[in-house]
Structure formats: C-alpha cells, structure tokens
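DM from R.C. (forwarded with permission)

"hey, sorry to bug you on a friday — could you get me a structure for this? deadline for the figure draft is monday and I only need the backbone to look sensible"
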Amino acid sequence: MRIELGLLRMCLTGTVLTPGEPGYEAECRSWNLAMHQRPAFAVTALTEQDVAAAVRFAYVRDLPVGVMCTGHGLPRPCDDGVLVNTGGMRGVRVDPVTETAWVQAGARWQDVIDEAQRYGLAPLSGFATHDGAVGSTLSGGMGWLTRRYGVSAASVVGARVVLADGELVETGESRHPELVWALRGGGGNFGVVTELRLRLYPVTEVFGGGVYYPIEAAGQVMEVYREWVRELPPEISSSVCLTRRGSEPGGPEPLRGRWVIGLRACHSGDQHEAERLLKPLRSLEGVLLDTFAPMPYERISEIAMPRTDPNPHVSFGMLLPELTEAACAALLMVAGPGRRAPYDHLELRHVGGGNRPEEADAGPGLWGAEFVLHSSTRTPVADEVAAAQRFYSRLARGLAPFASERTALNFLGPANTEPDRVRRSYRDDHYQRLQRIKGVYDPHNVFRFNHNIPPAA
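My reply, with the result:
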C-alpha cells in the first residue's frame, strides 16, 4: 500500500494524507464542527485530474468515496473511505453570449456572483453566499430569486463529472442527458462534479433588507406577515425569522444580545414598487432596526446577515404547504417568547412559485410547499446537542399537522439521512428515475456518503 500511495501522490497536484499525518485533521474538518470523520485517505484536489486519480485509486481498491466541496451540508462522515476535498477548485468562467457560467466544485456563491455581475448577470445563489455553489445546487438550492426564476438546480445546463470508475465526462443537452437531469437536485449520488454550467439571469440590483422587532411582538408580527404574504408578485421573496444575536463583533448594534423577530425580503424589480409593497412590514410599532435599501446584487448576503464562521451545530428543516393561523400558533407555542427554546436561528422562508410541478426538469420538488422552515442551534458541548435534538423533536410534533409530506435535501442534516427521509425529497416517479440513472453511472454505490439514492437492482 505504501508504494501505491506513493504513486498516487506522484499523480496529484494536491496532496493525500492518512490518519496521524500532519494536516490530516484540518483536511477532514467540516464547516459543521459537530461532524467528525476519519477517512482512510484524505485527498486535496486542485484539478479535475486530481479528482479522477483519487476516484480511480478508490475504485480499484473497492473503497467508497466521499466528496467535500466547502464543508457545508455534509450529511455523512466519510469513515474508512477516500475523502476528496475540492475546496481549492474555485474558478468561475462566464460566457456573456450564452448567459451561462462554468463553476468549479469549490467555488462559493460569492465567487460566482462577483464574476457574473461584471456582465450584468446573476446566478440563482443561495441565501448565504459563503455556501458552496455546486454542493447547494446539486441538492436543489433556494435563494432570494427562487420565486421569480426557480431553484438553482433548475439552472443547470451541463457539467463535467468524474464517474465511479474515474472516467471524466462532459454532459450537455446532447451528451448524457439523463445524467444532466439527475444532477438537477439528485445530490452527489452520480459522480464527483468538477464543474457545473449554470444559466445566469439579468439581475444587477435589488431592494432588500430586514426590519426587526422585539421577540415579545412575535404574535402580532407573524399575523401581519401571514396576511401580507398571501398575494405577492414573483419578484419578491421574503421570510420571517426568530433569532438570538449575541455580542459577537460585526453584528448590528441594536440587535446585540437580544432575541428578536425579523421580516426580511428581496425585490428584484422596480424600487418604488418594492417600497410600496414592503410598507406594511415596516410600519409596526417598536422597530429596533430597519435595513431595507437598494443594493447591488454583490451584497445580497447582507439581507440575511448569516454567520460565516465554522461552528458545531444541529439543524432542522421542513416544508409547509401554507402558513395558517393555527400553524403560526403552533410554532410560537414551541419556539416563541417565554419558551425554553435553545435555537439560535429559526426562519420561515417563502419559496412558493419556485420549481412548479409542470417543470419536469426541475429536480427535487417544492411542489405544493409555500414555505421552508429552517433552524439551527450551536452545540459546543454534548449536552447541548441532546437539548437541541429534543427541542427539534417537539417542534416537529407541534408542526406535524401543518407540514408537507415532502422534505428538502438542502435542509436535511446528519440526523436525517435515513432512506425514507431522502426518498420524500422527490416525487415517486422522479425518485425511481434517479435510481435507474444511479444504476447506470454508479451501480456499486461508490458515492454513498451523501443523502443516498441506492441504485435500482
């Protein structure tokens, strides 16, 4: 094995590390520091040739392969397998004629945004622009433009993929069309995507931000939001969030150390129309902070003000077909003011209108789901992990009568990798089609450290 490992190292521009070697722990570290993994080999890939060499090395030794792009959304630890880290591959190439971008595996959404904006274009980026563009897209991808243009997976028009045997293929409309379809939301089940080709859209400026109130006003704020969100044009996406802001530097001074409820929105159309539509959200008494303003798309992450530092956490997500008065009451009963709720962040995002049933090529479904609920809790010690899990169990029970039967891969964390949860992220006919495609491109399930779709027999 030492000789074979030496040959692999000679083939790589990057590095390969084994347990105990300096740098191994850092190379295996996920953005969620609560996730620990111990692969047999940790490969730092700097080129797609590195990726192909690592996968071939694994294939001939019958070892499974795990892929880590930016460390976000890693659902399963790659124990005893070959971990391929593509975080160093951050190139972005924009073709302004076709209005598409080739995005390497380790590029973050901000990388794609910055390059696309040079040509007056924008990707369907996620809510947090420090997330990996390829990883979040493969699992569906939602963001501030979802209601207008759909999920980011629907913008995939091609890819370069290293298959389970190490072969590198390029896909497009006439080459491997079934594989292209599977990549539109099928997760990392079909190979290592070294580059995605994404469609871009003519957005350069938005009107966005948030208005924040004390948590004690949560009942009134949610009722206003529930009524306001009923009939909105697709140019506007919004959310209501309950969040605790600590004393960390860089956060807005009026929110530091407070538990607040915020109403966030992004309008990608006319500014005056945006101000008119948003007025009801900004007119309640007790405003702590109002950040709504015109902004270039490069600053889209300022709307949600996400934390960008790696941290140990437990997350939770579900889909809701509608936001009823009873659903709001059930949510506040478990997570509202006066409750012993340990979460740091809980947000209901309005995604209705994205990824409609008639869009057969759109990948995983938000069909019938108007809202995505997402929450996370920092858990630096084991007792806090248990407390967070108990809280999310209560939240799931409380909202069960109002939840969709379907789920969304982007919000299925390490605690939600069982086959039934993954299957419910897709329509039945889509899931069966994905299984058939998996059977063609990865019949031995080499890529299984993911939200796994087993190959059809």
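R.C.: lifesaver. The longest strand covers residues 205-214.
me: no worries. The mean pLDDT is 90.
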